[in-house]
Amino acid sequence: MIVTGALYQCKPVLSRQNLWFFVRVPYWHRAYDNLTIFIMRIKKIFNESEEIVVSKKELRQFVLNCMKAAGSPADHANQLADILITSDYRGHYSHGLNRLGVYITDVETKACSVEGTPEILKEKGSTAWVDGCNLLGPVVGNFCMDLAIKKAREFGIGWVVAKGSNHFGIAGWYAMRALNEGLAGMAFTNTSPCVFPTRSSEKSLGSNPICMAAPGNHGDSFFLDMASTTVAYGKIEVVEKRGATKIPAGWGANPEGRETRDPKVVLNGGGLLPLGGQEASGGYKGTGLCMMVEILCGIMGGSAYGANIRQWKTTETAADLGQCFVAIDPDCFAPGFNDRLQGFMDSTRNLKPLDANESVLVAGDPERSHMAMCDDLDGIVYKKTQLVHLNELASRLDVPMFKAKTLSVFASDDKNVMDL
After folding, report:
1. Are 213 and 145 in contact (CB under 8 A)?
2. Structure pTM?
3. 172, CA 20 to 30 Å: which among 121, 223, 323, 324?
4. Which DSSP state fits 295?
5. CA separation (Å) from 261 to 32, 252, 282?
6. pLDDT for 221-278, tens place per residue?
7. CB 359 within 8 A of CB 349
8. By residue range, what is the domain housing residue 91?
């Protein structure tokens, strides 16, 4: 199945409250040796009084203005803007502009360095150990993944581990850099302790994300980007900002480590549950994944690890996060990697769904659907409540707030329906 930004074609059908996107995805049906059109239906319900659309250009300028006011050099600010906007564009609002204030605080308080470049401490063949020199996480992450890509070109694999880093945004950004070079990419990071390991009444692990991206054919790809908890901490922040009073079971716990469905309790002294939730539903597996990522990042990288990492949103000490970046050249192994992966993804997507309106997806499909929607709206959709803190930042830093257009400009009208 071919699913890329270029091949996605969306036709929005709009009313004042409902926006439907029929996403037409051409893919090669191997059984019949012809081109088939797979239609993925996405329903987005908008409330004109609560939601807005903002162009990427406006968002980028806003991030650059804020970071400049905070004291960040332009090059570092641009790298940060890339990843924050990409995160929201892909639908990962928890790690997009929702996190801008965290980076600004780190720069303003000098908890994060604004000058210099990461340093290679040790290098052997396909591996490298890097000191991030306490720079912005995206600056460290881009340096390390680019180094891993270079090594993969020479040795078939590049494995780079860093210490002295900071929050680096979505792990998928770095795997995408390898993917764009025709390589498989993986990225991991440890985070501040916010997770109650199975059977524990104390938080000692981070939400430690795992990402793996690999190329299929014609721009299609497998793209897994997930926390090793049931959800990322930022997702609960976004849900709470949107006014929700209850979260699904298995997401979070109260300060004593017992499951709660109140987002405010989770965010005020509570924490996350590992992937799987409680022990009976497999939470011990999520605990193991959290620890695996910690071994690859904090332990192997010589950074802070586990409960020793500074608390979230504190700046008294450096974050000293550990991160791991891997690039793999599939051509070093069995021939036909792209074809076999494409066949694997096609067969998965072609499975008979439980619900005819809910197609079987592979990792990366939801993000591609979200990006297609944003492309046709010529911007990214935000709840106004999500942007309250950005208005506050703009006021405090004395920078202009970005301009936005309301969804009412897309009022139902045949003239506004784009033909395929």
Report:
1. no
2. 0.88
3. 121
4. I
5. 48, 7, 18
6. 999 999 999 998 888 988 888 888 899 999 999 999 999 999 999 999 999 999 999 9
7. yes
8. 51-106+380-416
